[in-house]
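We modelled the chain as a single entity of 413 amino acids. Its sequence is:
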Amino acid sequence: MRAVWPRAALFAMATLIAVPHATLVQAALGQVKKTGVLVVGVPEDDPPLAFREPGSGRLVGYDVDVATAIARMLGVRPRFQAVSPSNRLAALIDGRVNVVTGLTHTEPRAAVVDFTEHYLVSGQKLLARTGTIRAHKDLEGKRIGAVVGTFSESCARDRCKVSQIVPVDDYISGVEALLNGEIDAFTADEAILVDLLAGIPGRGFEIPDVTILRQEYHMAVRKGDTSLRQAIDEALARLKESGRLARIRDDWYGPKEATQPPAYGAIVRNAATRPRFLGILLNGAMYPGASVEVYALDGRRVGQGKVSGVIGDEFYLDVDPEIYDYVRPGYLVAMNMTPEMALDVLLRGRGSLKAVQTESKKASSQLQAQKEREALEKLQRAQKLDTLRERTRISVQGDRARYFYYYRRYRYR
């Protein structure tokens, strides 16, 4: 038999459950004003929305600038907390943050959080050679790359049926495929494409004004936190009216000179051709023709060089001839990095560089031992061959002597 709860008991239980949440959301804006802090959950690896600045490690990006402007309009200061797609809703619902950024509006999310007005219109777009794609009709027959398993891939397959969708392993592989002519365009979220475009050396590529899918980005507050949501909406409206929001967007999404993002690797060994070295990439992406700085493990700048070739996570580096004899395995190769950034890498990543140095020396010793073994084996083979030749020569001479002996003996009989 099913138990029947008294109506008064059910009401009391509902009250116990609802009151803490109601108190939490009603007090949210007041608590923000009282503490003078708006806690904002942002991603830490999603440029240009929000990411860690190389060197300083602080969070920067479009979301950070917008949230800072909103906090100032509320008369408080922002405090940023890194969140990921897997924990951002929990961080918001549990009250660890007051607001999270970078959400698209979906029905399941709307059931558990409240969305602000959108603060960014972006979408799935394309990266292609300049002038090759100007309208949707130009996509017919084109080979479009997309990272396998992502929303971008499923979106492209659904909305670009006249194109050939080519799956790639990651974003760097997609750019390499585009540079090598293996695909005609690469699709991803516009925010990601902007970052990738900045890393392509030289000119000749663009993000065409062709949107595969329009996306609006919202901030979110806890469900029922109406006062804070309205305050944020009012601040966003003022930012739009003043043009400040557009200027922030141009700072992060507007056309910029193509600059290669910071990257670094380590010297592995000498290459066959002087003054060339083989290096291995440790962070970022190296580009052929890029200028680099070489640093010793003690922080001393050794000199300059230029990347002559890239194969996966390995690269060839031609250093200035005068520093060739001073470069050693494990030395830092820094591309588009300030001396302060290089020093930070040497301090934080010294273990990786030392490991490369140790393994390179070990491999060099093994290679030297192998060369010595091969030289010894070659010498032994040569000695055996000389012995065989000597035996053959003696045998041939003996045969000749016997031949002439019998020839003379029987020829003049």
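As a brief sanity check on the tokenised model: The two ends are 135 Å apart (CA to CA). Residues 350-411 form the longest helix (62 residues).
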